[in-house]
Amino acid sequence: MFQEKIPSSGKNDSLDSLFRKQEEITKLQTPQQFYVAQYYSSTEIRLTWTEVRGAAYYMVERAVASPQDLQTPGYQQPDEGEYEVLNRFVYNTSYTDEILKNPSLDAPENQNKYFYRISAFNTAKKYDESDPTAPMSAMLFRAPGNVRASGGTSTESVELRWEPSAGATSYEIFRSEFPSGVSASSLGIVRGNQTTRFNNTVSTAEQGKDFYYMVSAQNGIGNKTLQTRPAYGYARVFGAPDAPDVSLAANSGRGQSASEITIKWNAADEPDAYYAVYRYSNTDSSLTRLIDRTNDTQWSDKTGLKPGVYYYYKVQAIIDDIKSGKALKSQFSSPDPEGFILSPPDTVVAVKNPDGKVTVKWKPAIGSESEFPSYKYNVYADTKIDGNFTTNVSANVIHSTDGEGFISADGLSQSNGVFFRVSTVNSSNVESVKSIVVSPAPAAAVIQGATQHLYFSGTAFAANSNSVYPVKITWKKPADEEPAFYHVQRSTKSGTGFSTINETALSAKGPFNDVYFIDSEGFFTYIDKNESAKVGRKFYYRVLSLNQLEQGNFSSAEAIGWGALTHEQYILEYNKTMGAALKRLTYMHKPGSTEKLGTETKNGAVSGTIYYNAAIQGAGARIIIQLSNYAEFYIENDLTKGPYFILTGNSNTSANMSSNGNMDGTVTCTGMYPGKVIYDGIEIKGGAAGGGTYGVEPEGGGRKSIGYSILN
Q1: Which of 198, 250, 376, 548 is the most buried (most CB within 10 A)?
Q2: In terms of Cα–Cα distance, which of 41, 408, 34, 392 is closest to 219?
Q3: pTM of the entire predicted model
Q4: Residue 571 to residues 121, 193, 470: CA-CA distances in angstroms?
Q5: Has residue 15 got a pLDDT over 50?
Q6: In CATH, which of 2.40.128.110, 1.10.10.10, 3.40.50.20, 2.60.40.10 is domain 145-233?
C-alpha cells in the first residue's frame, strides 16, 4: 500500500530520498614528506611537502627560537602557542620563507632556528582542516666564524683557519691588500666541511707584505655565504726580529682601572725596532690595529673599551730594511694576555619584599676567583630612570654569594627612589661605571576574564579568515601598585607556551584606542584579533605587569577565552555533531521505503540520545528526529575540556505523496558554542531538501538565515 502510493524515482523511491543521508564532511590528511632545507641560503629557507588529496590550499606556520630564549644548551622546540601564521593560502606544495632581504654578517637572524609546520585546507568543500605536520626546523646558511690568519709564523706561507659553516661543502678563499678587503682575488677552494684551513704560499717578493683574507662557504646546491670580515696575516721575512713576549703591566689590566688596560713587552734585540699593537675580544675575533708604530715597550689601551668584555693583545716587532725597502715584521706575540676594565655587574635584579622593602641582587662583575675577594659594591637609587644616581643606599657590599651565585643588598627603602644601579669598587677604591638601571617588578595584575563566544559588531572586529571573532581580555591593576605597562600573553596550553600578543608594551596611561582602552572604573581591556585562531580551539590568557623599564616577573592568573563563529561557520560546526548523530541511526539508511519505517533510539559517543520515528501520515510521511543532550565530540578531543556541541531538540520532516513538504523544529545547542538552529525555513522537494534557509541563532549573535546549500 505504502509503496504504491509513493511514486518511484527510478533509483530510489521518494521516501528513500526523504531519508537521504547528508554528505559526510571529510577531514583532510596531514601533509606527508614534509621537508625543510637546512642551511639552504643566507637569506631564505625552503619548504616542500607532498600533495594532500582533496586539499585546495595549505597554511604555513612558523615559530622562532633565538639564542637569548635558550635556558639549556641547544635550541628548544617552541610551544604550540608560539607559532604564528606565515602564509594562510599556499596553493603549491612548496614555500620559500625569505628571512633576510639583504644578508648581513651581524644579522641576529643568522643565529635563529626557524620551526615550521603545514596544515591542509579546503573550505569550499567544507572539509575539516588537517592536523599540522610535526615541526621541522632549519637555520640560514651562515658565513664561517673566527677567521684567523697567521702572522709571521712562516717565511713561505700564511696559514688561514676558520670555524666551519654548517651545511658547507666547500670554502672559497679570497685575499686583498687592503684592510677593508676591497679588490680581493680568489686564491682557491677548499673541498669538504672537515678541513677548515688553507695554506697560502707566498713568493719572496710577498714576504712581509700585509694581506687580508676572507672566506665564503658554499653548500651542495651552489649557494654561497657572504665573505667574512678580513683577517690580517703575513709571512715573515728572513732577518725579522723575534716575537715579543707580551704581558699585562703591573697592577693594570685586570680591573685595576675603569678606563684603560696597559700591556708591556720585552724589547727586540735590534736597536732600531719599533712595534705595532693589535687587539681582539671575546665578542669580536677580528684584529684591530691600535697603533702602527711605537718605540716604547708599553702601551695603554684607552680606545673604546667596554665594560664586561675580555680583551686580548698581540704585538709585532718591526725593523725597516732600507736595502730591500721592506718592513721586517716578527711573528705575532703568543700567548695573548687577557685584560678587562673594572666593570659593573651585568646581571642585576631588584625584588620587592612583602614588607615593601627592596632587595637588589647581582652576579659578580667579570674577573676571576683571584679578583673577586677584592671587589666591593655600591648600590645607588634615584626617583628617575635617567637620574644621576648619586644617592648611595648600600655602600661597600662585600663579595658574598648565595646558592645561586648572587650578591645581595637587602632591606632597601623606596624613599630614595624605585630605580637602582650597582657599581664595582676595587681594593684601590677605584669605582666602575654604574650598571644598567633596574626596578622592582610590579605585582600581578588582577585578570577579570576573557570573553567566550562573544560577538562583535562592525567591520573593525570582523571574524578572521578561519571565521573566528576576536576575544576581549579585561583586567585591573594590582592593589596599591601602579604598573607602567602591561603585556597580554596567550597560549594554547595552561601554564606553558605563553607569548606576548601586543606588538608594543601597553602603557597604563595610554594612548588608548579601539583595541586597548580603560573604562571609568579602571578596568583595562585589550581585544585580541587573533589571525591564527581556529574553530573549536580555546586559548589561555594572562597579563604581565611591567615597570617603567618594561620589566616584569609576575603574571596574572589565567583566563580561558575563545571567539564566536560566523553564522555560516556555526551551522557547519553544528552539523558535525548532527551528521554524526544521524549516521548512528539504522532505519533511515535501509534501502527500501517501508524498511525505513520504525522507531529507534541511539546513544551519543559522549552523552545523550537521538530518537527516530518514521510513519505514514495521510498520503505522505512524517519523520520525527529528537535529540536529548546529545554530544558526539569533546572540545579539542580532550574530555577534560567538555563536550563540543550538545544538542537538544527536534529536526522533523513532513512530505506529501509527491515527496514535497517542509521541515520543522528547533535544536538548542550548548557546549562550546551555545545557540539555536531552526529548521522551519527548509523546503522539501522531491524527497530532499530543495530550498529555503536554516535559521542560525548563536547566543548573542542574533538570527541569520543561511541557505540550505551550505551543507550540501
Answers
A1: 198
A2: 41
A3: 0.70
A4: 18, 58, 19
A5: no
A6: 2.60.40.10
